């Protein structure tokens, strides 16, 4: 059974807010609020896959300390621009 779109958005928003590292909570909360509702199903799939990554890695990618993997690079760049002003 597939998950209704609105439920998926709420679930991904909650996952964005409960990361474990406060900095990533803030960054991903801002991003989720700004972008999730306008994302396609494929974009949401990519974002959900990104949420599976380690917070330490995510923070380094978003902050520009290390390059994101190619599959996540456009998304990470959008997160950085949207949430960090970068």
UniProtKB/TrEMBL annotation:
GO BP terms in the entry: tricarboxylic acid cycle
Signal peptide: none
Record Pfam families: Sdh5 (PF03937)
InterPro entries: SDH, SDH_sf
Key words, A-Z: Chaperone
Family: Belongs to the SdhE FAD assembly factor family.
Protein name: FAD assembly factor SdhE
């Amino acid at each position: 059974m597939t998950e209704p779109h609105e439920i998926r958005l709420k679930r991904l928003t909650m996952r964005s807010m409960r990361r474990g590292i406060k900095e990533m909570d803030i960054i991903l909360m801002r991003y989720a609020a700004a972008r999730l509702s306008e994302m396609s199903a494929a974009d949401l799939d990519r974002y959900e896959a990104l949420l599976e990554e380690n917070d330490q890695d995510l923070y380094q990618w978003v902050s520009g300390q290390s390059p994101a993997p190619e599959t996540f690079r456009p998304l990470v760049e959008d997160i950085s621009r949207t949430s960090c002003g970068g």
